[in-house]
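Backbone-to-sequence.
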């Protein structure tokens, strides 16, 4: 096993990161989870299957946070960092993955931790993700220095939410490269969860799925909720899996549940918990997480202790001691986050304050079932394959609201380890199917939902080498570029924009470039803004399709790119006739090229990769 090669899978989660490996070149190899050494307390290093995605910067008086491979380290990644978030939150960076997808900030700017004291070095969301990945690389080197190549020399499959746009994917890869991971492929997390299920089933997976099945994957993690639909079709007599729909990026998960329980306990305290300061509330939230997991695991005690260390004179005895009851957990979590609503339900909107602190764009409505209903209704009539599936089922809704005709359900994410939450979610889904005359969906037996994504990513490393079942997917969106129409100037009226499709829905990563069949004018030599749009519901647009008008929610404008393209010997401000070509790179970003009709030099072209830029 000297210099052994592995297919490595990394689940870079909002609250936890996991690492799995599968030996390459060994027929019948199965993925296994790697135990990651980390500081769990000062001076205490333990190897655990989950690495909390937290980064803690020590106060100068604390001294070094030593690791076996770095005795002088001044920061910590993992369990100790998460524990310190309760009493030193301004020194802890969390939710790095969510910050990577936040288009409202410069994601390469040093903005984290928010509200950090002056002695704390601030870092960017990209660097925060890098530090987590770099810890994995260092831990791998320490554990396998004599038996395997470094992690940076192994083929790595890194998972991202299916709802990540091209810019967030690109930044994730940038963080991986900074951590020394040179051979990186991105994989959508719901697909990874299904890969883990296929691996666990072995050859028996075909007994659970048939042609025409639609697998609904619901992934509720610590910080995000993700939906995907995967279609089973016949390809030359063999079953093939194709990802056909993805949901929006929703910042909603287990962290919200822990905070809701903390507020519920606080409301039951004398004086409505007014004696708790913000740090004690953070500590109470952390304590509620452990109590919640204890109560939701199954039969057991009806109450769990919750202890918060004393910080003020209002508390006596050195600590505030409370009890979290099973009945409160069930009412807050089940009814608050998974209410039994109809398929016509939509997330509630609230009026926002004009001024707000800089932070993550959390979902305004905590009801996962409302977000799920929105996804299923939006995707119900999208795409020829789905319309054919609906017609074949002969369904006719008695409710008036049609949903995606899914037949199987795969549940993933740490939140859905709880049987009570799984049962409520599945019963709600089947009630919606019943309203439109469809048969109940079958729950696919899942692997450990906290580790399935990492295992599935490692399995995909085997699939890429022809050993396993592949899910076809391509891009989760159709991509469009905004083209300005030449019209006479009118005071107060902006020229209309036509959205021209440059990458259709489902375009495979690494495929050949698609070329538009008409010329456009490209402005060179002066600052210009490229406007990009995406759609998860326009499935039938081909390259070159013009969309002049669209309904709300049909097209979403993405982060623009502002750039000055070199004039290359032309006059500044010239409009150069070009043809556009586009392709999806192997890591899932959109590469746009403009080739002039009359180049001034050999192989002249302008390249533009959809990336994050500030206005």
């Amino acid at each position: 096993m000297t210099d052994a090669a592995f297919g490595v899978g990394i689940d870079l989660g909002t609250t936890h990161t996991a690492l799995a490996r599968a030996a390459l070149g060994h027929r019948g190899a199965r993925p296994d989870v790697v135990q990651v050494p980390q500081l769990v307390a000062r001076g205490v290093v333990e190897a655990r299957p989950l690495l909390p995605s937290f980064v803690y910067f020590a106060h100068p008086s604390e001294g070094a946070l030593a690791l076996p491979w770095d005795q002088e380290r001044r920061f910590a990644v993992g369990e100790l960092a998460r524990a310190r978030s309760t009493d030193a939150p301004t020194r802890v960076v969390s939710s790095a993955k969510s910050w990577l997808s936040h288009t409202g900030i410069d994601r390469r700017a040093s903005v984290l931790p928010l509200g950090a004291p002056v002695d704390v070095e601030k870092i960017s969301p990209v660097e925060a993700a890098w530090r987590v990945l770099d810890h994995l690389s260092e831990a791998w080197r320490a554990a396998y220095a004599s038996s395997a190549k470094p992690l940076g020399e192994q083929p790595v499959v890194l998972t991202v939410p299916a709802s990540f746009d091209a810019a967030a994917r690109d930044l994730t890869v940038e963080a991986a490269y900074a951590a020394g991971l040179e051979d990186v492929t991105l994989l959508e997390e719901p697909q990874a969860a299904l890969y883990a299920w296929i691996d666990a089933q072995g050859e028996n997976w075909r007994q659970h799925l048939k042609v025409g099945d639609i697998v609904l994957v619901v992934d509720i993690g610590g910080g995000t909720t993700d939906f995907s639909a995967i279609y089973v079709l016949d390809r030359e007599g063999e079953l093939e899996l194709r990802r056909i729909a993805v949901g929006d990026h929703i910042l909603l998960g287990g962290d919200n549940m822990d905070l809701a329980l903390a507020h519920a306990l606080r409301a039951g305290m004398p004086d409505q918990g007014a004696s708790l300061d913000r740090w004690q509330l953070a500590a109470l939230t952390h304590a509620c997480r452990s109590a919640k997991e204890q109560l939701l695991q199954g039969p057991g005690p009806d109450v769990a202790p919750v202890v918060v260390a004393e910080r003020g004179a209002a508390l006596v005895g050195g600590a505030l001691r409370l009890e979290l009851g099973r009945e409160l957990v069930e009412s807050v979590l089940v009814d608050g986050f998974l209410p039994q609503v109809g398929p016509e339900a939509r997330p509630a909107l609230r009026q926002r304050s004009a001024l707000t602190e800089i932070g993550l764009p959390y979902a305004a409505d905590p009801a996962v079932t409302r977000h799920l209903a929105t996804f299923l209704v939006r995707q119900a009539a999208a795409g020829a394959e789905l319309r054919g599936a609906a017609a074949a089922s002969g369904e006719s809704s008695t409710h008036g609201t049609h949903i995606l005709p899914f037949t199987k359900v795969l549940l993933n994410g740490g939140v859905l380890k709880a049987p009570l939450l799984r049962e409520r979610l599945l019963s709600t889904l089947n009630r919606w199917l019943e309203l439109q005359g469809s048969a109940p969906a079958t729950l696919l037996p899942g692997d450990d939902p906290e580790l399935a994504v990492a295992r599935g990513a490692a399995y995909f490393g085997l699939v890429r080498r022809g050993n396993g079942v592949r899910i076809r997917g391509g891009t989760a969106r159709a991509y469009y570029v905004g083209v300005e129409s030449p019209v006479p100037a009118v005071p107060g009226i902006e020229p209309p924009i036509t959205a021209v499709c440059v990458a259709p829905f489902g375009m495979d990563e690494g495929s050949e470039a698609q070329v538009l069949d008409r010329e456009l004018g490209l402005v060179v030599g002066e600052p210009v803004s490229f406007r990009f749009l995406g759609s998860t519901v326009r499935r039938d647009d081909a390259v070159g399709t013009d969309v002049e008008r669209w309904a709300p929610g049909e097209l979403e404008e993405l982060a623009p790119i502002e750039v000055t393209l070199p004039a290359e010997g032309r006059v500044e401000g010239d409009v150069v006739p070009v043809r556009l070509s586009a392709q999806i790179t192997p890591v899932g970003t959109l590469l746009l090229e403009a080739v002039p009709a009359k180049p001034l030099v050999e192989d002249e072209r302008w390249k533009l990769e959809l990336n994050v830029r500030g206005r």
